[in-house]
Backbone:
């Protein structure tokens, strides 16, 4: 076989492999992904056993720590509809009332959403945000020394 | 001071725009005076942005709250060490840092090439100044760091407590140094394509900048991982978060570029590939800078400055369109001078290494942007998690480490059977031997880790063999002692042996990643004093609670609750670990309503305690249940508020401060006297230290590679330069 033909066959084989691999990657990304949802959509259409990536804010005063982990409620970013979540695993430092979180959950037989172990991420606050905040008036009065 | 800063940025913008115009006109008309003027504009840009950056740093160090950005990102209680880094924790400060670094590198490369590449440099100048004009424009019109407040507050909001870590002081400047340094090879590659001068000279001229970009970006990524491991309280160092991935993408394509340019330099091949890689790397650097500001992807980092979206997307669009146009219209001059002679050659291994690196980059890119892709395709936003990333990147990285063990010993053009045995015997013995030796240690259920150990051993065998051969050859020639021969070997072949050191470091790093991911044991436990938890053969007993107040500049910086954990193994004492959690008062606490409770309503950060070693890290974090103190705090607040109301004006502010101090001390005492159960996370993770150690070795290798060659070599290079200048003059 002449070298040019040999090179052409090699190139075609390599490109076919690359296309097949890329196709597999794209296909699995769709089948392995979790739908990103808010509490409202979860309440309306969650199916038991299916995995969802829930985004929302922690309801004030809803965090309840227990021996096995904790439960809390997640609400809409701009709204009051909320869902209960039970969770076991690593809790990021910024996690607290009112903080925006992302967590992978599955609906159990009841109305509780069970968080996947170690899937809780809490958004790091303040950095690069454009929220207007004036520090005026928020600091302690002049002369305080604590 | 703010006015001077604003003026410096306006002048910087004007100078950059002027420089773009004169450089392009100078290149087209071949007028040397205009080209020189364009280069001088780069020097002026560097001087003006340096002035602006210094002014902003001074404002932060002086806690000058008339500056809006200082008031929002620093405070008097922020330790001085962190005040300096608070400037780049803001949107506007980080953009100024980008511009400052870009202008410095631009000035350095254009000074170095002031008598070289006269056809390419003016276009590169225009492109670099174009970036400068873009960032100066953002700083003047959208995100000014010199915006002032009408009335300066007495106290600022403070630096986010999570960012108060030494790694965070250096991490952003390192990333930005990497991003901005990659702008240099991008600009020269684009300039070379515009000028249709695609020999390897632009690669040689920008080689150190490419390597430095890779070096700094790598340090930034590693410091981020270290910060995540030791500060974020979850015990991991990589989470496949979009912002992490954004910095990894240009590093991956940059790594591919650093390897493939060697083939262009040696054999005049892969020109289209190299040009495409460096242009893609430049685009990915700007994409990374944009991603952390866009809020377009859900990330652990809540970045939400959408006002910069349109300009950034426009710039990225222009860069992509320009790059595609340049590569497609210059195909004729980008043709390879040679063809691959054999699949068993160094060129082929480098090509395979490039395919794997670009494959990893594609996986990371696809996974990172999958929420946008899925929304466009299916109308539903979905995301892929770490298991999906691992599924593809793990086998690719094993292949990459394997190739990095083969590449240095395989011959250029064609590996013959006769020399193969000599080249591969010892590396193969090391690799296969390690796989065999590990067989009895239960590695079958973790095949990826097992293969990575084998690949790591292969790389180590290759590197040791190459150093041993080099030293032997030197000693045969010069009769030097082994250490002297080793030093002179590296000194005379810095690029080659620096590369070997980098390969060794990367192998150690990935062996650490494989071991710590595959054999980690983690446990969460809620313990009262006296209770214990067992992890990986260690027994950790909650010995006693701890509590203290940390002050800075006479004011409370944070309240720290922690624990002492007594660690034993097989009944033998190992040591005491003291994890803690710091509670920072919020910047918007309302003193009148609940002065004591307000101290616990801000951010809280973990102070991790570790027993780190080459074999294993025992990592602990504690989450004290401060909710159990609510009753005590509420009672104190009520009593305190009543007392203050009764005292009226008769009580001085200093006395109020002292009373609050006493109240807080009583809260701390009640925590230590009657401690509620605390939640602990304990992780026994093998060989994590290898990751940091490997990283350090990689960076040492990069320094060796970047270090200027010995004087003799410079003289040879000067002679080459003289010859080239003579040729250019002859052509002119």
Residues:
């Amino acid at each position: 076989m002449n070298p040019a033909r040999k090179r052409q066959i090699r190139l075609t084989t390599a490109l076919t492999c690359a296309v097949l691999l890329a196709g597999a990657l794209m296909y699995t990304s769709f089948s392995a992904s979790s739908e990103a949802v808010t509490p409202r959509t979860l309440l309306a259409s969650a199916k038991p056993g299916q995995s969802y990536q829930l985004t929302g804010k922690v309801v004030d005063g809803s965090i309840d720590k227990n021996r096995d982990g904790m439960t809390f409620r997640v609400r809409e970013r701009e709204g009051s509809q909320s869902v209960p979540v039970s969770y076991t695993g690593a809790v990021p430092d910024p996690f607290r009332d009112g903080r925006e979180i992302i967590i992978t959950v599955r609906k159990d037989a009841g109305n509780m959403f069970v968080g996947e172990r170690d899937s809780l991420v809490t958004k790091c606050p303040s950095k690069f945000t454009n929220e207007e905040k004036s520090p005026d008036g928020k600091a302690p009065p002049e002369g305080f020394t604590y | 001071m703010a006015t001077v800063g604003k003026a410096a940025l306006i002048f910087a913008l004007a100078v950059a725009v002027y420089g773009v115009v004169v450089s392009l006109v100078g290149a087209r008309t071949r007028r040397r005076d205009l080209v020189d003027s364009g280069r001088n504009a780069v020097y002026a840009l560097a001087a003006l942005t340096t002035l602006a950056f210094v002014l902003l740093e001074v404002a932060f160090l002086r806690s000058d709250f008339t500056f809006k950005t200082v008031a929002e990102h620093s405070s008097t209680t922020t330790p001085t060490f962190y005040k300096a880094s608070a400037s780049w924790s803001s949107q506007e400060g980080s953009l100024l840092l980008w511009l400052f670094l870009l202008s410095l590198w631009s000035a350095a490369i254009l000074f170095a090439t002031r008598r070289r590449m006269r056809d390419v440099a003016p276009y590169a100048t225009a492109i670099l100044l174009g970036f400068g004009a873009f960032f100066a424009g953002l700083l003047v019109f959208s995100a000014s760091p010199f915006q002032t407040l009408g009335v300066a507050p007495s106290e600022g909001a403070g630096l986010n407590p999570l960012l108060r870590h030494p790694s965070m002081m250096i991490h952003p400047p390192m990333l930005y140094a990497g991003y901005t340094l990659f702008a240099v090879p991008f600009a020269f590659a684009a300039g070379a394509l515009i000028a249709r001068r695609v020999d390897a000279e632009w690669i040689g001229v920008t080689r150190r900048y490419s390597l430095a970009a890779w070096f700094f970006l790598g340090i930034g990524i590693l410091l981020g991982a270290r910060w995540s491991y030791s500060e974020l309280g979850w015990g991991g160092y990589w989470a496949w978060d979009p912002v992490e991935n954004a910095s990894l993408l240009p590093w991956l394509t940059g790594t591919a570029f650093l390897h493939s340019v060697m083939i262009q330099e040696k054999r005049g091949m892969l020109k289209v590939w190299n040009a495409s890689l460096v242009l893609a790397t430049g685009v990915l650097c700007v994409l990374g800078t944009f991603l952390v500001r866009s809020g377009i992807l859900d990330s652990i980092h809540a970045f939400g400055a959408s006002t910069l979206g349109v300009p950034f997307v426009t710039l990225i669009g222009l860069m992509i369109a320009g790059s595609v146009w340049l590569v497609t219209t210059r195909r004729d001059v980008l043709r390879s001078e040679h063809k691959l002679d054999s699949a068993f050659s160094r060129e082929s291994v480098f090509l395979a290494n490039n395919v794997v690196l670009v494959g990893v980059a594609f996986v990371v890119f696809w996974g990172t942007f999958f929420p946008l892709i899925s929304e466009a395709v299916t109308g539903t936003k979905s995301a892929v998690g770490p298991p999906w990333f691992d599924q593809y990147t793990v086998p690719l990285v094993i292949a990459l480490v394997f190739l990095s063990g083969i590449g240095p010993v395989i011959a250029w053009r064609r590996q013959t059977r006769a020399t193969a045995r000599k080249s591969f015997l010892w590396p193969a013995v090391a690799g296969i031997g390690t796989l065999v030796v590990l067989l009895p240690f239960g590695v079958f259920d973790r095949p990826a880790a097992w293969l990575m150990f084998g690949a790591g051993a292969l790389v180590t065998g290759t590197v040791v063999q190459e150093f041993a051969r080099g030293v032997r050859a030197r000693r045969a020639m010069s009769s030097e002692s082994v250490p002297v021969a080793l030093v002179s070997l590296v000194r005379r072949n810095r690029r080659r042996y620096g590369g070997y050191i980098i390969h060794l470091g990367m192998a150690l790093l990935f062996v650490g990643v494989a071991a710590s991911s595959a054999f980690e044991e983690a446990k969460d436990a809620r313990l009262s004093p006296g209770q214990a938890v067992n992890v990986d053969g260690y027994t950790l007993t909650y010995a006693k609670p701890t509590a203290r107040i940390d002050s800075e500049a006479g004011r409370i910086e944070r309240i720290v609750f922690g624990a002492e954990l007594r660690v034993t193994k097989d009944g033998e004492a190992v040591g005491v670990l003291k994890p803690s959690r710091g509670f920072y008062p919020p910047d918007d606490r309302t003193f009148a309503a609940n002065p004591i409770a307000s101290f616990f309503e801000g951010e809280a950060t973990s102070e991790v305690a570790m027993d780190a070693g080459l074999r294993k890290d025992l990592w602990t974090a504690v989450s004290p249940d401060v909710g159990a103190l609510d009753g005590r705090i509420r009672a104190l607040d009520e009593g305190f508020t009543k007392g203050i109301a009764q005292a009226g004006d008769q009580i001085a502010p200093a006395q109020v401060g002292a009373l609050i101090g006493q109240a807080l001390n009583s809260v701390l005492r009640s925590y230590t006297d009657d401690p509620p159960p605390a939640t602990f996370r304990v992780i026994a993770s093998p060989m994590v230290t290898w990751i940091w150690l490997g990283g350090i070795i990689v960076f040492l290798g990069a320094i060796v590679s970047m270090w200027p060659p010995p004087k003799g070599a410079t003289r040879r290079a000067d002679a080459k330069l003289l010859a080239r200048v003579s040729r250019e003059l002859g052509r002119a």
Notes: Chain B touches chain A through 89 residues (CB under 8 Å). The mean pLDDT of chain B is 87. The CA atoms of residues 171 and 220 of chain B lie 5 Å apart.
